[in-house]
Amino acid sequence: MILLLRHGETFWNREGRIQGRTESDLTPLGERQAAAMAGLVADLLRRDGGAFRLVASPIGRAQRTAAMVAEATGLAVELDDRLAEIACGEWEGRLRADIAHIHPEAFASREWFFGAPGGETFEDVTARASDWLASLAPEPGRRIVAVSHGVWGRLLRGAYAGLDRQATLNQDVPQDAVFRLHKGQIDRFDCEPAS
Question: Domain extents for the chain?
Answer without folding.
Answer: 2-190
